[in-house]
Specification:
- This protein is an all-alpha fold.
- The protein folds into 3 domains: 48 residues; 204 residues, no CATH class; 133 residues, no CATH class.
- Helix 16 packs parallel to helix 19.
- The protein starts with a helix and ends with a helix.
- The N terminus is likely disordered.
Length: 510
Amino acid sequence: MTDDVKHLWLIYRSAGFISAYNQKTIMINISIHFLFMIESYIDGIVKYGVNMKSNKVDVLNGSIAKQLMLFFFPILFGSLFQQIYNTTGAIIVGKFIGKYALAAVGGSTASLLNLSTGFAIGVASGGSVIIAQAYGNRDNEKLSKAVHTALSFGVIFGLIISIVMFIFSEKILIFLQVPSEILDDSTTYLRILYVGFVSSLVFNMGSGILRAVGDTKRPLYFLIIAVIVNIILDIVFVTVFHLGVFGVGVSVIIAQTVSALLVLNALINTEFEYKVNIKKMKIDPQILKNILIIGIPAGIQASLFAISNLTVQSSVNYLGADYVAAWTALSKIDSVYWMTIASFGISITTFVAQNFGARKHDRVKDSIKVCITIASIITIIISVVLYTLCPWIYRLFLSDYNVIQIGIKILRMMAPFYITYVAIEIIAGALRGVGDTIIPTVITLVGICALRILWIFIMFGRYPQIETIAICYPISWVATSIIFTLYYLILRPIDKKFAIQSKEFTKVEA
């Protein structure tokens, strides 16, 4: 909290404003104060930009461990900050609007958004890989074409999804059997968010471009600004203007638009090779093909992950409210691990892509080993902490003794096996960095998604217990980890990519 805001709070508190109404007034005034601060900061970015050199991580040279961690932490902090917003937003909606509003912006609505957003971000990752490879190879012409192709495709793709989902939102929600008492609010919220879907996709594409060239700090800064704007507008629209779910949706798309404009400003005003020129915004067919070869499998993978988890969730629902509550709390508690390992996956993809583009083959292999080692150490620490402290952690979320005991049982079945997921995330991320996506996607879909769904259909009918559901996760992690490790060590796909790259380079020189 800045000194100005601290002083503002002390003035209000010393004036004796302690009633619920005045507490709300204080929050609104501080929110307005924050908006002016953010406006000033954004104005500074627009006028003077951000020093790119101070934000860029050179993944091609220096200590691999150091550069990897410098790249990793901003991505992790961004995920953590987004999680803080999700929790805060849920509190605002639940406390000031009510349980039906909270249900309307969550549940099936959130699942649909996760499906489409996950697919879109997966496709966007294809652009990040192609851009990182071109940047590592210092192929400025290809880099520029890839940047403009990725952004152009993002806008077109976003518009298509926006229009389709806006038209069919209500029909899809009815198909998913959304309760009638929340259907109208769910439809309103979903349609509003899909109006702003293009902004969300542009931000993700733009952030992917910046990360691809080694800049992970500015996407973090822009995300923090957007999250603060979102929380402030949630408070104002809900508590002052009483706009309900409509206001919550509008605050989201305003924040997404702010983040998209910030990232576009950074790309347009840079003096580096990836500078965006609006006049050059067009799609290069060959580059788009390369982006989609990498991006579509990643997008399908993300979407089917969500579908398999929905299947698991339906089985948890069958067991009753206590089990649903314990499972929901678990998703909040162990999210710290999944955000961490996902951040390592994003980091190794860019790290490998740039070094592969620069033809630094030894550094590619070394970075995979280093990343697996660091990720394993952090995974063990998180697993031990969660396993040991889960009774106390669950009490932060719940007070019901029975629900807490169920949650402890689930978490202690899963936590010791988190270590088996490290190889899956890191090897898949590294393979994505060299453009090998088809087989890793098939391995993931069969080993994780299909195996979980089959397990639930076959075993849960015989043994309808929470243990039957929980154990499907470690089983799928172990099986998929073994397959990935064997694929990486025996078939040596990265060495094959090196050989293809060397032949192509020899032809070009000849």
